Amino acid sequence: TRAWRGLIEEYRDRLPVTTATPVVTLLEGGTPLVPANRVSALTGCEVYLKVEGLNPTGSFKDRGMTMAISKAVEDGAKAVICASTGNTSASAAAYAVRAGLTCAVLVPRGKIAMGKLAQALVHGARLLQVEGSFDDCLEMTRKLSENYPIALVNSVNPFRLQGQKTAAFEIVDALGDAPDIHCIPVGNAGNISAYWMGYTEYAGDGVATRTPRMFGFQASGAAPIVNGAPVTHPHTIATAIRIGNPASWQLAEAARDESGGVIQSVTDRQIAAAYKLLAQEEGVFVELASAASVAGLLQAHAQGLVEPGQRIVCTVTGNGLKDPDWAISGAPTPVTIPIDAHAAATALELA
Ligand code: F0G
Fold this sequence. Notes:
By secondary structure, this protein is an alpha/beta fold. Helix content is about 45%, strand content about 15%. It has helices at about 5-10, 35-45, 60-75, 85-100, 115-120, 135-145, 160-165, 165-175, 190-205, 225, 250-260, 270-280, 290-300, 325-330, 340-345; strands at about 35, 45-50, 80-85, 100-110, 125-130, 150, 180-185, 215-220, 260-265, 310-315. The mean pLDDT is about 100.
């Protein structure tokens, strides 16, 4: 075997790049597909986690960003802008550094996890905290990119979805065919749309014999697609998917309908329980939004939507280290002891 070269080189013939495209990469993609033993036992299925938190900036956004930034450089851009619930801004900031571009990001004030804020700042992005929602931020960035020489790298940029579709390729390459069901969190709805593009492309070219049913999950306080109407004041503990009017709404519905899938909502309580289960029973530390895929699978299983023995992939979209505040707030306070092995033994109930 040889070293992973980043997803543009690995899937060059399936991406809209030419030899003239300057490839801006941090060697993203090639993430592990980890068997989820506990979730498999709970559902009677063969469940895998596509661990996207192991990308260079800790989320799946790097797949889209390597494409969006490479194409922006090819087009002669000097600056890029995005709206973000945190991960897109972290990724854009890092890839902009790599490309020598200026990066501006608009985030909803007080509604992004600390690690993500740290990433945008440490990579030197021009970060503005908007007194509004992600949806407000996205509308502002659309206007700014129309009126000023600054390229938009949100998932409304078609190169983003092209990069993100490679996750579906990797899954088929690893399993030998598409799974029966693919579970995924839905926020701005770009990722579910990108996976569906990837799966249908592989099936269309005979690389896979079939496509999976796409199961998308929104947080119940931010579930516009489930409700059939935009949500003006979205709320959820899963801040990454706190979105009331997703940009790729129609594409996500098409993915659901063409694949024979569902888009459902899960409560914050279900999300928190799945987060804990992944950390404490699978050994996989994800962020809250990512746990929506597993919360959703457990719900769909309880509803009888999942036949036993099915092969299922859950995308876990971001790394748990992004949000240390949440992790710590739910954990017991550590015990402090003097420099004394006996005190340690007592505290650990060994003695
Ligand atoms: N999971 C995580 C960790 C995310 O950061 C996002 C989106 C999603 C799931 C949902 O993906 O938007 O393609 O449906 N985060 C965006 C951001 C909105 O700004 O980082 P989606």
